[in-house]
Amino acid sequence: MPTEELQKLSVQDVAAADGKAGAAANGAKNGDAAEQSGDESEDEADGNAPEAGSGAAKKKKNKKRKPRKKKKAPTAQTDPPSVLISQLFPNKTYPKGEEVEYKDDNRWRTTSEEKRHLDNLSMHNDFLPDYRHAAETHRQVRQWAQKNIKPGQTLTEIANGIEDSVRRLVGHDGLAEGDAIVAGMGFPTGLNLDHIAAHYSPNAGNKTVLQQSNVMKVDIGVHVNGRIVDSAFTVAFDPMYDNLLAAVKDATNTGVREAGIDVRLGELGGYIQETMESYECEVNGKTYPIKSIRNLSGHTILPYSIHGTKSVPIVGGTGDMTKMEEGDVFAIETFGSTGNGHVHDEGEVSHYALRTDAPKVDLRLSSAKSLLNVIKKNFSTIPFCRRYLDRLGQEKYLLGLNNLVTQGIVEDYPPLVDKKGSYTAQFEHTILLRPTVKEVISRGDDY
Ligand SMILES: [Co+2]
Predict the structure, then answer these.
(1) Which member of 219, 250, 325, 326 is catalytic?
(2) Which residue in 399, 281, 405, 292 sits closest to 355, CA to CA?
(3) Interval 423-435: pLDDT, tens
(4) Which of these, 71, 116, 140, 252, is most buried using a 10 Å CB contact count?
C-alpha cells in the first residue's frame, strides 16, 4: 500500500522523525496469535481402522477401541490454505526472511556484540517472531493466490479468497470484537487493474470480472500483533506485458538491495528510477517507455500504522536527505507505468483508516458515533475497507463513515489511477533494518 505525493520534509520534521527512530522496535503487544491450537476431530488418528468396508463392519471391529492417540500436528499446508502457521512452525520457529549483510561503512554490524545483543532483544520481545509469522502467512497465501487467480473470476471472489485464507492461517476470523486487532489483514487487499495503480478493492456488489488482457496489482497486508507485512506483486496473463513487469520487479529489487542504515532516501529514489526507466514495453504494437510513477512512494511502517513518517521516493531529484535508520521498517514498493507516470484520485473509495492524529470531536451524528466505536474496537488504526464493515454486520454506514472523513477522524484513500488506457505494475517488499543485518522479511522464491 503506497503513500501518495512525496512527503516534503522540513528540517524540523526530519528532527522530529529522528526522535521517533526505534519506535518500531517497541510496539504494543495485544495478545498472542501463536498460541491458537486449532485442535479438531481426532477421528483419523485411530490408526488400525480398515480403509475399506461399510460403517457397520467398522463398528464391529472397533468394539475394543484403543485409547485415542493425540493427532499429529499437520506438517503441510492445504489447498486452499487452512492450516495455522503456528502449527506448521511450533514454538515460534517461523522461517527467516532473506538476510543481507550491511555494506561499506556498516560491515562491522554483522559481528558487533552490542548489535547482536539488540537483535536478541527483538527476538525475545516478539518483534521478530511476530514479523516472521506475518511474513510466512503472506507467502503461503500469495503463492496459493498466484496459482489460482484466473481470468473469469470476479475481483470479489479473489479478494475474499485471499482474506479468508489469511484469517484462517493466523487463527483469527476477526468477527468477535477486537479479534482482527490481534492478527489478520494488515490493510484491505488491493486488486488494481491496468491504469489503476493502488487503493482499489471491490465494495459490496462489485461484479468486475478479471480479463485475460488485464494487468492486476495484488497488494496484500498481513499483521500479527500490529506488525504489518506489506508486500505486492503483479499478475498478467498476456506475455505482452512481460517487460513492464520485469522493469518494476528489477526496480523494487534495486531499492531493496540499496536500502540500508544511513542511506539517504533521495538517493535511493534515483537508483530506483534509473533501473525502472532502462526498460520499455511494446503494447499492442506501440512501444512505451516505462516510467516510475513519481507521486507514489514507499514508506516506513509503525506498529498498527501502515504509513510511518518517512517515505521512499521512486524517482530521483527529490533532494530528500532523510536517512534510513537502525530499527526502521520499510515498505519498498515501486510502480512502473506506460502512461503519464503520475496518478490522481478517481473512483469510488473502498479503503479507510482511523487517523493516528484523530482530533477529539463531539460527534453530533449518532451513526458516525456508533461507527467510530466499531472502527476503534475492530481495527484501531489498521486500514479497513467497506467489505470489512459489511462482514461485521454493519449496515447503512456510509453517511456516518463520510461524516468521520469530513471531521478528519477517518482518512479515506481513493483509488490512485494513471491515464485511461495505460498499464501500471507494482512489486513491493517489507524490509527490517535490524541492528546486525537487513532482513527482507517478505522475500519468497516467487519474488
Ligand atoms: Co506499501
Answers:
(1) 219
(2) 405
(3) 999 999 999 999 9
(4) 252
What pLDDT is recorded for position 4?
85
φ and ψ at residue 134, rounded to 5 degrees: -65, -40
User: CA–CA separation, 434 vs 116, rounded Å?
Assistant: 10
What are 211's three cell numbers?
Answer: 480479463
Between the CA of 432 and the centroid of ligand 1 the distance, in Å, is: 14
Q: What is the mean pLDDT of the chain?
A: 89
**Is there a catalytic annotation at residue 333?**
yes
Q: Identify whether 428 is a catalytic site residue.
A: yes
Cα(118)–Cα(103) distance, integer angstroms? 19
pTM score, whole prediction: 0.86
Q: Does 299 qualify as catalytic in the annotation?
A: yes
333 is in an annotated binding site: yes
**Domains of the chain: residue spans and CATH:** 348-413 (1.10.10.10)
pLDDT tens-place string over residues 289-332: 999 999 999 999 999 999 999 999 999 999 999 999 999 999 99
pLDDT at position 20: 39
The residue annotated as part of the active site, out of 195, 299, 351, 429, is 299
Cβ-defined contacts of 212-216 (< 8 Å, 24+): 212/151, 212/237, 212/238, 213/237, 213/238, 214/151, 215/241, 215/244, 215/245, 215/423, 215/424, 215/425, 216/149, 216/191, 216/192
Q: What is the mean pLDDT of residues 241-258?
A: 98
Confidence of residue 156 (pLDDT cuts 50, 70, 90): very high
Cβ-contact 398, 444 below 8 angstroms: no
Q: 219: annotated binding-site residue?
A: yes
Is residue 133 part of an annotated ligand binding site?
no
Give 79 Cα–ligand 1 centroid separation in angstroms. Answer: 27
The rounded Å distance from CA 426 to ligand 1 centre is: 10
Distance 210 CA to ligand 1 centre (A): 23
Q: Within 13 Å of residue 395, how many CA atoms lie on the same side as its CB? A: 1
Question: Ion ligand 1 — residues with CB under 5 Å?
Answer: 1, 230, 331, 333
pLDDT for res 74: 77
Compute the distance from residue 322 Cα to the ligand 1 centre, in Å.
19
**Angstrom distance (rounded) from CA 82 to CA 13:** 44
Banded model confidence at residue 63, pLDDT cuts 50, 70, 90: low
50 compared with 341, residue with greater pLDDT = 341
From CA 311, how far away is CA 266, in angstroms rounded? Answer: 10
Mean pLDDT of 154-174: 98
Identify the active-site residue in 130, 250, 428, 439.
428
Residue 182 has pLDDT above 80, yes or no: yes
Q: Is 307 a catalytic residue?
A: yes
